[in-house]
Amino acid sequence: MKILALILALTFLPAAKSVYDFKLKTIDGEAFSLAKYKGKKVLVVNTASKCGFTPQYKELQKLADQYKDKLVVVGFPANNFGQQEPGANTEIKSFCEKNYGVTFPLSEKVSVKGDDIDPLFKYLTEAPNPDFTGEIKWNFEKFLIDENGKLIHRFRSATTPLSADITKYL
C-alpha cells in the first residue's frame, strides 16, 4: 500500500515551471539554486576536463566577466561522454582554476543523459525552445536561460561561448 501511495504521489508531482525549481549542489557540496540568479540570464554548460572542447572554459570565463551584470555562467561537470571527466569534484575544481582561471560557479559532477540523468538536465533537454530538444550529444552543450528561469536557446558543443550566436542575446 505504501508503494502504491508513493507511485501516485510521484505521478502527480507538479512539473517544473523553470530552472528555479531544481535543488543543486556546488562543486564544494553546498546546496544552491539557480533562483539566486533571478533577473539575470544564465548559461548552463555541461563541461569536461579532458575533451577537445575543454579550452572553451577560457571563453566561458571571459563571457562571464564581460557580461557579469546581466549573465551568470554555470558549469556542470559530467562524465557521460568518453569518460572525459573522470576526476572527483575537488580535482575538477582545481583543474578549472589552475588551467583556465575559472571563477564562475561550478556544480558538483552530474549525469546529463541516461537513466541517472540529473533532473535539471532532463528538464532542459525536454523544454521547448526555438532551437532543438532531445538528448545532449557531447560535452559543452549550452542552454541559455532568461531572467525568469525559462530556456530560451540551446547550442551544440561547437558553438563557442563568445560567438555572436550567443552574445547577440546578451
UniProtKB/TrEMBL annotation:
The active site is at C51. SUPFAM superfamilies: Thioredoxin-like. GO terms for biological process: response to oxidative stress. InterPro entries: Glutathione_peroxidase (IPR000889), GPX_AS (IPR029759), Thioredoxin-like_sf (IPR036249), Thioredoxin_domain (IPR013766). Keywords: Oxidoreductase, Peroxidase, Signal. Residues 1-17 form the signal peptide. GO terms for molecular function: peroxidase activity. Residues 13-170 form the Thioredoxin domain. Belongs to the glutathione peroxidase family. This is Glutathione peroxidase. The lineage of its organism: Bacteria, Pseudomonadati, Bacteroidota, Sphingobacteriia, Sphingobacteriales.
